[in-house]
Amino acid sequence: MKSGVFIVLFGQQAFEEALDTAKAAGLQSVEIGTGAYPGTSHVNAKDIVNDEAAIRRVKDAVESRGLTISALSCHGNPLHPDASIAKSHHEDFVATVQLAEKLGVETVITFSGCPGESANSKYPSWVTCPWPPDFLTVLEWQWNEIAIPYWREQSAFLRKHNVRVAIEAHPGFLVYNTETALRLREEAGDNIGVNFDPSHLFWQGMDPIECIKALGKSIYHVHAKDTKIDKRNTAINGVLDNKNYGDILNRSWVFRTVGYGHDDEFWKDLVSTLRLVGYDGTISIEHEDGLMSVNEGFTKAANFLNSLILKESAGEMWWA
């Protein structure tokens, strides 16, 4: 297994500087944002996909530092009811897949997307309960008329370019948990897998270790990000919390650097369980900790993750 980082974290740095930061921290790989929500501060897939010299510069910059690219990431909503947004995010995805093929990168990461409640919608509509029954009508339409046809088409497109997609399960989108991830894979194609991010599972009350066992070979990439649950606020208001992420004192949960939401034993178990289901790729740091600066959060995460992977490689964690 390799340790890595999603370098959108270093969006204020030039691409080469961001790579140097990752290398200096002892990481082995980088995940690169190429469009949609992650932005294009380092690489714009649409701009360089047909520029062989630019593609070579990206490849050389990574390889000359002894790094690898774990994935290209263009998290977006290609199912957005606003046609202009859907088109933009879809084009970012298409260009990213084409760029991945030219770079020799196997995995592209995005979201499943979420449509509106009908063809007349302006904004996405995420269904979270089965009653009133209108919600189930909406959900059936979203899956059968929008999501499944779209992702079947993208599965065929991916096969033509020898690339696979890792869908990040995230509340607000159709794929947000284990069963929805597996449903999309079953309905649309077995080259549609998962970018496993435990931080989004913790606050929904899920057990990431059991999720790994259930997802198995469908895990194509992994994010290292933690979540801290505030017991009092959760006891009072539950976990569906739409307060600003900066309102840390009053939120039911917040994202944290690995090791600051769950202890070493959990993370050791996570790494070992990934190995048990056959995952041998990158665990990529994603920093969204509102209590730590970028430098502090990244440094602590890198040290923590490198230590975990070193122990796992040495066979010290199989008992976990």
TrEMBL record:
Task: Give the superkingdom in one word.
Answer: Bacteria
What GO annotations for molecular function exist for this entry?
Answer: isomerase activity
Q: Which organism is it from?
A: Cohnella boryungensis
Stretches assigned to the Xylose isomerase-like TIM barrel domain: 20-307
Q: Give the transmembrane ranges.
A: none
Q: Which InterPro entries match?
A: IolE/XylAMocC-like, Xyl_isomerase-like_sf, Xyl_isomerase-like_TIM-brl
Enumerate the UniProt keywords alphabetically. Answer: Isomerase
- According to UniProt, the name of this protein is Sugar phosphate isomerase/epimerase family protein
